[in-house]
Amino acid sequence: MKKFNIDDIRGGEVLGNSIIVSKYQILLTEGTILKKEYIENLKELGVTEVYIQEENIKSNNQETEDKNIEIGLRCKTQVKNILERHIYQKNTDLIKLNDTATFIIDNILQEDSITDKLLEIKERNTDLYEHSLNCCVLSIILGIRLNLSNETIHAVGVGCLLHDMGLRFIAVDYNNININRLSGSKQQEYKKHPVYGYSSIEKETWLDPVSKNIILSHHERLDGSGFPFHKKRMSKEVCMMCICDTFDEMICGIGCERKKVYEAIEYIKSFKNTKFDGTIVDEFLKTIAAYPVGSYVLTNTGEIGVVVKQNNNFPDRPVIRIIHDDGMRVYSSSDLDLLKEKSVFIQDAID
After folding, report:
1. Is the CB of residue 45 less than 8 Å from the CB of residue 21?
2. N or C: which end of the chain has fewer CB atoms below 10 A?
């Protein structure tokens, strides 16, 4: 990696270090291919020097990220188009989600060491279809980690894509709202959405019982505190989905107030062996990065850092870059690997 004057950059180079400006804002992340328009914007912002990877090629990480974005957009569009055309018990197009689930599974299995990598899920605005897709990906990876059969994993994937279809049949606003604070009638209506969803597909012979059970029971809890039936006994597949659904709901604000990723993780941890199956919680927590790349964090030593890299199998011990603000510009010091620096830990995430 070498430092270059911005005037010597022509476009097509691979950024070797993230570019950070005032208020700890990341403009461009490490591994970005510098386009000519990016270079002009950087000049306008007063950036004079950048670090460039010595091998002027697109990184494997960047290629994987681009591919995942493309796949995610394609699948989200498919799910959205199918579910928005769906009318209660008019299910002709729903069977196409079998193919969508197969496509997602095949692409997950093509990734090297997928079960060893940490997934970086970020907080976002409420989007029912993106939520369904995220739950599908999380549950499929969890199913692979738990050594479920291919047939079961496929059924789980389809169930996840369909699990919240009942929300389309209610008029209650659930966007970034804690449903427990709704009026009694609105709260009851919201809690019926698993039944509405299940009733609309109950007689479909093409849909696996595992998928149907996920649609009906994804809000149940092992301590009986869930809904709509307060069940205490659930299949492994439903227990998986309960965890994935709860986590993703919290970070996008479906039926609850939106939380940070690490707060959602702490919630899942706090109800291990009570609301959620402990063995499945342990596997789930190994898959999610508590602090995604680009997150700003406060360490126990009082320093502010930005997460620049994950340490696989250690979701709360990433590599961070300590940054400083002298009132005029933001600059960074060397990276700090929290897997090696045992005395330093992340105390909080900051905006």
Report:
1. yes
2. C
